[in-house]
């Protein structure tokens, strides 16, 4: 499911999860465990809600414009270094 998902796009947008948040590493760890297990969601340790993984969203092939934490299609800075990934390939 996540084989072609660029590594940088696995990280949440900094606007949706601040890398300085005290639980940032925990959220990433739980997310990566879900991706590795090939499950579509994980229980968010901050809210308790089920959150879609970047791999699941990538497999859909488009952005739903719902502001998903791990949306791989949204542009903008990601991760502790606020790196900006190259534009997504067209999903048409």
Number of beta strands: 2
What Rg, in angstroms, do the CA atoms define? 12 Å
Helix content: 10-25%
The biggest beta sheet reads: 2 strands, antiparallel
| Uncertain regions spanning at least 5 consecutive residues | none
What portion of the residues fall into strands of 2 or more residues?
A: 5-15%
Mean pLDDT: 90
- H and E string: HEEH
Distance between the termini: 19 Å
Question: Which geometry do the CA atoms define?
Answer: globular
Assembly state (oligomeric): single chain
Strand order of the main beta sheet, please?
Answer: 1-2
Number of helices: 2
User: Which structural category do the helix and sheet elements fall into?
Assistant: alpha+beta
Count of the domains = 1
List keywords for this structure.
alpha+beta; 7% strand; 92 residues; 22% helix; globular; 2 helices; two-stranded antiparallel sheet
Could you please describe the fold and organization of this structure?
The chain is α+β, with helices and mostly antiparallel strands. The protein has one domain (1-78). Helices cover 22% and strands 7% of the residues. It is built from two helices and two strands. A two-stranded antiparallel sheet has the order 1-2. A hairpin with a 6-residue loop joins strand 1 and strand 2. The longest helix has 13 residues, at 24-36. The mean pLDDT is 90.
